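Recall the central idea of this unit: under ordinary conditions, the amino acid sequence of a chain determines the structure it adopts. In this exercise we apply that idea directly, starting from the sequence alone.
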Amino acid sequence: SAALNLMVSSAVFFAADVISVYLPRYANQLGLNGILTGTILSANGIAQMTVRPFMGWLRKWHSIRHLLQKCLLAGGICVTMIGLSSTFEPLLLTATLAGCAIGLANPLTLLTVSSSVKATERSQILALRSMANYGAQALSPILFGTISASIGLAPVLWCGGGILLAAGLTVRLLPGECC
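Accordingly, the structure predicted from this sequence is:
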């Protein structure tokens, strides 16, 4: 259970890296200027930040596991759709929605990881979560750089979305309500 939670947490960081590193390159490939690309990235970042205060309200309606699964699936669809978009408006919309999903998923993974162990083991599992997330951030450029060099930028976004979708399906394997 703790290992699955760590994998899900790392998937969120993979997707965030895909957006921050490859979305600007993809937008440039589409011919968008720096101002439009910066607007898209800012909208994504603002969405990640501003959605978090709503987590408590959303928790009234959904378990953490259910909410995390919805965020991962929605985020996966949005990141994939970024790679299918070819103009500013759809890129802005999908990047903003992906930001909302990832902005909620990140603290939700923190909760699921910490609740997957006894209270006396929480500091150790949170340290492992940080290590796993940094590991994901270290492997992501190698994996996605290879994909980008081999078959293009859009497939990088599709793969990033696919990783989030797979993580969303993995959440179903977590035991109990988890939180």
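The two ends are 13 Å apart (CA to CA).
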